[in-house]
């Protein structure tokens, strides 16, 4: 899917072991067919020198993963943790390694533009994954 500059927003590159939160526009589709626009979040991490971007929504019950804004990593920095029911995720693949989640994290695209990083504006229109 082609994406123009209006589809992207620039965010700060997180430090090693850190995360940058960013807003995402999303649409919630109701069972009666209606849809409402909601504000969601994504987060960009740097783990072992590699960037990854994920939607800040646990695949178990849909809550944000962080209970302290911007804190996603386990104490040892090796995993991402959902603080609601303590599911553990692989920071590079997003796979659920432990906990009640039925699937892994929702991946978001990102692209490095010089010293900056760009991430999507919406959760729906996902440009092809980049950054490798
Ligand atoms: S909401 Fe994340 S493990 Fe339950």
What would your notes on this structure say?
This protein has 132 residues and is mainly beta. The protein has one domain (5-120): Rieske [2Fe-2S] iron-sulphur domain (Rieske Iron-sulfur Protein, 3-layer Sandwich), CATH 2.102.10. It contains no helices and 10 strands. The protein has strands at 8-11, 19-29, 35-47, 50-55, 80-81, 88-89, 96-98, 107-108, 111-113, 116-120. A 4-stranded antiparallel sheet has the order 2-3-4-8, with no helix packed on it. The radius of gyration is 14 Å and the shape is flat. Mean pLDDT is 89; it is low at 125-132. The chain binds FE2/S2 (inorganic) cluster. Residues 58, 60-61, 63, 82, 84-85, 87, 99-101 line the site of FE2/S2 (inorganic) cluster (FES). FE2/S2 (inorganic) cluster binds at residues 58, 60-61, 63, 82, 84-85, 87, 99-101.
């Amino acid at each position: 899917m082609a994406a123009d500059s209006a589809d992207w927003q620039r965010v700060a590159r997180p430090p090693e072991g850190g995360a940058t939160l960013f807003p995402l526009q999303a649409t919630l589709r109701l069972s009666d067919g209606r849809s409402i626009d909601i504000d969601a979040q994504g987060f960009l991490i740097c783990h072992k020198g590699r960037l990854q971007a994920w939607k800040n929504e646990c695949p178990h019950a849909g809550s944000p993963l962080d209970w302290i804004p911007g804190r996603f990593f386990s104490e040892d920095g090796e995993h991402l943790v959902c603080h609601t029911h303590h599911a553990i995720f692989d920071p590079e693949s997003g796979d659920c390694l432990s906990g009640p989640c039925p699937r892994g994290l929702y991946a978001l695209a990102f692209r490095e533009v010089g010293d900056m990083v760009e991430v999507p504006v919406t959760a729906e229109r996902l440009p092809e994954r980049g950054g490798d």
